[in-house]
Amino acid sequence: MLTGSQNLALTLLGWMATVFIVVVGAAALALVIVFVRDITQNRHAIHRNFPVIGHMRSLLELLGRFFRRYLYAMDREELPFNRAERSWVYSAARNRPGTAAFGSTKDIRRPGTIQFNNCPFPTLDTDSCAPSPVTIGPHCARPYNTSGLFHVSALSYGALSRPAIQALSRGAERAGCWLNTGEGGLSPYHLEGDCDLVFQIGTAKYGVRGPEGGLDEGRLREVAGHERVRMFELKLAQGAKPGKGGILPGVKVTPEIARIRGIPPYRDAISPNRHPEVDSVPELLDMMERVREVTGKPTGFKMVMGDPDWLDTLAAEIHRRGPEAAPDFITLDGAEGGSGAAPMSLMDNMGMARTEALPILVEKLDAHGLRPRVRVIASGKMVTAEGVAWALAVGADFVASGRGFMFALGCIQSLRCDQDTCPTGITTHNPRLQKGLDPADKGERVRHYVDQMTHEVGTIAHACGVHDPRELKPKHVRLVTGPGRSVNWGELFERRGVGA
C-alpha cells in the first residue's frame, strides 16, 4: 500500500509527464506548421529549399553580433566603438581610476594613429590645470561665458527617453557643462536639472514651429525666456546623415513628444533635409541674425564638412556685413557622428571625417581673420581623452559628445536605438525598460564622466608641458603615416600656411 508521500510523488510525476507531452506536442505541431508554410511560400528560397532549419540562418545572423562582441572580438576591433573605448567611459562614469597595467593594447604603428609629443620637462602635477574661460557671442545682448571643455552634444527628447534626459540634465549641471537639446524641442526634463542648455533649431523647427512649419518668433522668444537656455544652434547637418533630416519612428512619437514638437502623435517624424528658407550663405546669415535679434543670445550653426570652398563664400559675406554678422560658433560634426537613425548610404559614405575636417575649418577661419570671433565646437566620435585633447590641439574651443554620454548612462551598444527596444532604457519609451535607468544614479555617472575627462585631458596637457588644455597646439600632436613613420601635425598646418 502506497504512503501519502508516494501518492503525491506519483501525482507530480503524472502532471510532469502530461506537461511534457503537451509541450512536445505543441512544439511538434509548431514545427509542422512552419514546415508546411515554408514549402508553400515563394518569398524565401532558403526557407523553401530547407524548411524549418533554414530559419537558423536568420537566428545565427542575429546572435552573431552579440557573440562577436562578447566572445570573439579583440578589445580594439569592434565598430563603431570598441570594447577598450567603452570600458574607459564605463570606468570614468563610475569614478574609477583610468589606469592600466602591462602596456597598451593600442597599435601605435597603425597609419592614422594620433600620438602626443611629451615634453622633457612636463608641467608639475601640483600646478593647476583648470581650463580657461571662453566667451561666446561677444556682440550679443547676453553673451555666454564658460570654462568647460567637454559638453553633451545634441540628444533629443524622443530619440532619448525621459529618465535619460533627466539624468543628463542633472549630471550636466553638477559637471558645469552644457546640454544640447537636439532638434526635438525643449522638454521639461531638459530644464529639470537646471543645467546650461543649447537649444537646437532643426530643419522642422520642432519646439519653435509655426502652423505652416516655419519659425515662430513668439515661441522662439518663449524658449529664450528660460534663463538656462544660453545659446541657439541652427542645424544644417549631422554626421550620421549629411543631406538628410531627422528621423524619429512613429512608435517613439508619444502624445507628450508630439505636443512638445508640435506634430501629430504616432506618425513618423521626418524633418526636411534642409531649412526651406535657407538656400544660400546670405540667407543663412539672415536667419542667424533673426534668431539672435529675437533671443539676444549667441547663435551659430552645426555642419558636416563637404566641399570646404563654401567657407570662403561665408567669410566674404561676413566681411561685407561686418564681424557682428558672423556666427558666434560653428559646431563641426565629423562623418563619424552617428547617434541618430540614418540611411546606410549616407551613414557609410557621406561627409568628411573630423580628423580632416576640423583642421580645414580652423585653417579657413584663421586665414579669413575670423578667430576668435567664431568659436569652434568639435563633435564626432570623441569619447576618450585622446580625441578631446587632439581636437583642442588642432584648434577647437570645445568638444561635444553624444554617444560618449550615452555610454556614461549605461549604453551597451546593442544597436537598437531606432526600434524602441533599448535594453538599458536610454532610447526607449517602454516604461518597463525605462525602470532600469535611475536618473539620480546615472546623473552622478554623467558628472563623473565629465570630471574624469577633464582630468585626463589635463594629464595629457601637463605631459606636453602646458598648464591649460586650451594651450595645446598642433605642434604637440603627431600623426602616424606608416610603420615607423609619423609627422608633426604642426608641420601639416605650416604646409597649408597656418602657424603651429
UniProtKB/TrEMBL annotation:
It holds the Pfam family Glu_synthase. One of its GO terms (biological process) is glutamate biosynthetic process. GO terms for molecular function: glutamate synthase activity. Gene3D superfamilies: Aldolase class I. Keywords: Membrane, Transmembrane, Transmembrane helix. CDD domains: GltS_FMN. The keyword Repressor does not apply. The keyword DNA-binding does not apply. Residues 142-466 form the Glutamate synthase domain. The chain crosses the membrane at residues 12-36. Belongs to the glutamate synthase family. This is Glutamate synthase domain-containing protein 2. It comes from Thiohalorhabdus denitrificans.
